[in-house]
Structure formats: C-alpha cells, structure tokens
C-alpha cells in the first residue's frame, strides 16, 4: 500500500511535471530538473534516516534480490568466509545466492528448529574471525519474524536486508556496513533498491563486478552510471516528504507500533485465531495468523476480498493468512480487518 496523498500528487503531476510539458517518466535523467529531483530525494533520505557523512546513498536497479549478488560481488573475493544469520526464507535465499560466487558461506545462526518463528537471543551471534561480512534480515516478511535489536559484529561489517522494515522507525545507520532495501514495501513501486554503504567498503569490489552493481562506480557517478529508475526515484522523494509530514520516523514508529499491538492483542485474546511467532520476535510489518480450522482458509480469504480486505493469503510456502501493515496502512485498516475477523469467527466458530 502506498500513501493516497502521494498517488494523488503523482497523478496530478503526471502530464506536466515541473512545467516541463512532459511527464517525469519522459524527461531526460540528465536534465537539470531530474538531477535536482534525484538530489532532493537523496538529501531527504539522509535527513530522515540521519545517514552519517561517511556513507553513500545509491539507487540501483534489480531490487533486493539483485543485492543478494551485489553484496558478495562488492564485499568479498573468491574463497572468503561470509557469515549469515538465518531467520526465514529471504535470508536463506541470500545465503544460497552467495554460494554462486565461490565463497564459504557459514550460517552462524539458523532458527530452522523453530520453523523460523524465533530470532536468536541478543548477544548469541558470534561472527567468524576474518569473515568478509555478516548478513542478516531484520524482518522476514513470509514468517513475520523481526529482530528487536541490532547484532553486534565487532570488526566484521554488518549487512542488512531492510526491504520490509526501513522507514518504519528510527534507525542507527552507523551500526552497519551496508544497508540495502527493495523499494516495494515502504518506499514506492518495485524495481529499485536503495543501498547505503560505508565509504571504507567502496573499494572492495571484484574486478568482474558488473559496472551497474559496483558500489564504487555508482557512488562516483551519483547513481547515474546508466539510466536510473527515474520514476522510482521521483516517487521515493514524494514518499519521503510524506514521511516528514507524519512526524518523521518517530511519528511513524508510534503509528506502526500501535497498529501491530492492536492486531496482536486481538489474536492473543482469540481461541479461533493465533499467531505462531515468539512474542519477542513478532514483526510490526507482517503479521501471519492461523485459524483453528485450516479448511476455512480459502473461504476466509475470498470473503475478506469481497469486503475490500485484499492480499491476506499467507505465502504459499507456509499457508494460513498474513496481514502486511506497512507504513501507508492506516489504523482504520487494521480495525476493519479485526471487525471482519470477529464476524467470520461468529459465523464459523
């Protein structure tokens, strides 16, 4: 879900952006208007996240999945050990992708025994000595599992796939070597990844790293080594302006915490519905839930869609249902879902 205000602004500007007589999707990425737009988007992101001066902000095509390859290409060489913390399917996919680049990937923690409903206890993650980096996924969308802390990795650069949690609350960027995030959750449409990389890591790329995925080359060219995803950059800027209007990350944190707590409280009080995730690992953004009678799942999803409550089917790999309540989802959306679920339970319990 994207903020309605942003969609309406984009709609109004689409035929004639900044009095150019063209859509933002038509102007040259080298035009003074679009260069200023990209610079504005980057500065807003720096302001909102408090990104230190010794970090670069990159706009790269290919989404987060592209960065499953981009990270090892930029931070390691063949034969290096790279560490992974596995708490769900996306971290596991990144782990498997790293194997394609001649690395020695090690799962220093794997929560498979809990069926990926837990995160490791704080202080238990121990990086391998000499590892090129340690990768983790702060929020796993499919399982609805989220870290309540940032792992301490010492001299080993910490890499985070923040696709589904970035901009949902304040963040200490200085704790990380690299943060990457697909834009399709809290930052706009699919197709682009935002990469935030510390300066001292820019010169580690392999010689055969594709130019468009080279952090150093992209940083040197202000993300315009090739034609960038202009519409995604433009919409990200609009969303960042919306974030500021919501009170910044502090304001969104209050809003997001309240939405999640409301829904979890309802689930915990029910004998008909349940959430499988450990209480200390519950996500603010993605809340899976089950029914006592799984035979009702398809009926639930179909009736919910008829009521205007969409995309509630759980991922095909885990089943059940899942409510994704990203930044743009209002409290009213959560309340409407709860009311529907109460009525469904009344009829089918």
Automatic annotation (TrEMBL):
InterPro entries per the UniProt record, alphabetical: Aminotrans_V_dom (IPR000192), Aminotrans_V_PyrdxlP_BS (IPR020578), Pser_aminoTfrase (IPR022278), PyrdxlP-dep_Trfase (IPR015424), PyrdxlP-dep_Trfase_major (IPR015421), PyrdxlP-dep_Trfase_small (IPR015422)
Pathway recorded for this protein: Amino-acid biosynthesis; L-serine biosynthesis; L-serine from 3-phospho-D-glycerate: step 2/3; Cofactor biosynthesis; pyridoxine 5'-phosphate biosynthesis; pyridoxine 5'-phosphate from D-erythrose 4-phosphate: step 3/5
Cofactor: pyridoxal 5'-phosphate
Occurrences of domain Aminotransferase class V (ranges): 2-337
Localization (cell): Cytoplasm
Chief location category: cytoplasm
Residues that hold pyridoxal 5'-phosphate according to the record: 90, 141, 161, 184, 226-227
EC number(s) reported in the record: 2.6.1.52
GO biological process: L-serine biosynthetic process; pyridoxine biosynthetic process
Cofactor mode of binding and number, as noted: Binds 1 pyridoxal phosphate per subunit.
Class of the enzyme per the UniProt entry, highest EC level: transferase
Binding site for L-glutamate: 30
Segments traversing the membrane: none
Family: Belongs to the class-V pyridoxal-phosphate-dependent aminotransferase family. SerC subfamily.
HAMAP family (alphabetical): SerC_aminotrans_5
Protein name: Phosphoserine aminotransferase
Organism: Brooklawnia propionicigenes
